[in-house]
Amino acid sequence: MRLTTAQALVRWLRAQRTELGGIRNGIRNGVEDGVEDGIGGGAGSAPLFPGVFAIFGHGNVLGLGNALEEADLPVWRGHNEQGMALAAVGIAKATHRRQVGVATSSIGPGALNMVTAAGVAHANRLPLLLLPGDTFTSRAPDPVLQQVEHFGDPGTTVNDAFRPVSRWFDRVTRPEQLVHTLPHVARVLTDPADCGPVTLALPQDVQAEAFDFPDALFTPVVHRPRRPRPDTRALAEAADALRRARRPLLVLGGGVRYSRAAGRAVRFAEQHAVPVVETTAGRTCVPHDHPLHAGPLGITGSASANALAADADVVLAVGTRLQDFTTASWTAFAPGVRLVSLNAARFDAVKHGALELVADADEGLRELTDALGEWRADEAWAARASHERGKWDAYVDTLRTPGGTPTYAQVVGVVNDLSGPTDYVMTASGGLPGELIGGWRAVGEATVDVEYGFSCMGYELAGAWGAAIARRDGVVTTLLGDGSYLMLNSELFSAAFAGHGFVAVVCDNDGYAVIHRLQTDHGGAGFNNLYGDVASRHADPPRADFAAHAAAMGCAAFRAEGIADLERAYRAAREVARTEHRPAVVVIRTHPASWTDAGAWWEVGVPEVAHRPEIAAAHEEARAGKARQVRYL
């Protein structure tokens, strides 16, 4: 059929389906009403691309814009390109990588605004399809509006900035190139090992050019999760390493969530009496009170999980890239520990000299269970999980006890106590990830999204919009500080206008408090982080009125005067989000220097030469920490 490049791309998007596989949430069809639309795949399938976030400009409004207008595909208008692309990332995380958000922009600044969102998706191994407009391939009208000319390479445009943060990048310079590139687009977005952002740069003249596309390109396809099984020799080696273990530890990462293997992981732990800890991306895979659950691991984790990690002799890491916050910059584990890495991506499985077991998390754990047979770890070691976690729970309970200026831990406690098994909670940056990772007690499986791969300020609000679109059950709550709110808040209006409700709890602590803590804890003077240390010509600088601002953006706004009042405000906000289908923002003043502390070390660059003796002392402490780092290669 004869179609323009843009029409063919949109028709192909519409034909791609996904298997939800028991996921209760996920966008079922174009109008988001939960009714199956019957396009290929039958019951249980849904659109792979449930909709497009768009800001139109001269680089995409005529080609892609007209193609979207004539197609049966939802289009949500954003108000900042980074924000709408982050909302698309939020859809992917909320549907456990089974659905993919799409974002399109014009050329120039609109395109570059989406590069940060690509970084978020790349760091977190999340699918995202970006469709930035591009300059004319003919170059006849060059230089066009918003074109950045490269003096030594006329073929370079700003869209080349997407290359380092894309798993697949292509500039479509001929309509027929779609026949080649679109299967690769689907491959990358749905592959458990290579999953990440895809960028298709679309020159505006090519968007409008036509070609006789083969009908087969638009045949409906249902993409089902690939579940590679482990190599038999690697499986035998992994099983042998575990049988030799006296103190094995199971670490669950995001790959467990995306494989929907949480139940399998818990059964593996139970059958073999292995204590379980979670990474940031693996949070809430295990019921909080499970006797083998030792808590979250690492710097923002728990002292309980860190205590077991320090004594473990074999670590089975499933679906995790073992980021520095998880490993406490590689001081969490004992010297000589044996790492067994079960991962769909060999890139991650081979890190740090691990015994690699390349497989889907669910299939890999199933076959590893069979290979281990009746083997069980020492019961006394297994019992340490609940013993240590009990001590950590008691510590968190003391932090949640009301008194004085409200703290992050107390705010998290209120939200936790009022949340149910279908609710979903989010955060991304500042001090709140440490509170949510370390202090949250799971009330439902895979119901936490802490974007701490890229730790992108602003994801909290934009990602919550995407999650609210994707999750049909429960209430989405996002927790953020005043800094993140000021960084990127435009998608509050986008969500309010579109009719997608969620709750945002804004903790106002007068600036970038967690970075102030990092600064002063390593000998520095308070400088340019808390407002009291920021340059101003005013003796009494202005303060942001977050509640008034949120109301002006079409949201319901609530002020909470203390922790007792927060419960009232949060209950009311949940009701608004659920019944009025718009964001509800709760604002509460919080303490700038009260934190949950897991007692782990983190490597940061402390100056070797400084004018403050406190910094020199901190540098020596950093050297001592580096001496404890476990090196495997």
TrEMBL record:
GO terms for cellular component: acetolactate synthase complex. This is 3D-(3,5/4)-trihydroxycyclohexane-1,2-dione acylhydrolase (Decyclizing). The keyword Secreted does not apply. Keywords: Hydrolase, Thiamine pyrophosphate. It holds the Pfam family TPP_enzyme_C. It comes from the Bacteria. One of its GO terms (molecular function) is acetolactate synthase activity. GO terms for biological process: inositol catabolic process; isoleucine biosynthetic process; L-valine biosynthetic process. InterPro entries: DHS-like_NAD/FAD-binding_dom, Myo_inos_IolD, THDP-binding, Thiamin_PyroP_enz_cen_dom, Thiamin_PyroP_enz_TPP-bd_dom, TPP_enz, TPP_enzyme_TPP-bd. Residues 59-146 form the Thiamine pyrophosphate enzyme N-terminal TPP-binding domain. It comes from Saccharothrix syringae. Residues 235-368 form the Thiamine pyrophosphate enzyme central domain. Residues 451-587 form the Thiamine pyrophosphate enzyme TPP-binding domain. SUPFAM superfamilies: DHS-like NAD/FAD-binding domain, Thiamin diphosphate-binding fold (THDP-binding). Belongs to the TPP enzyme family.
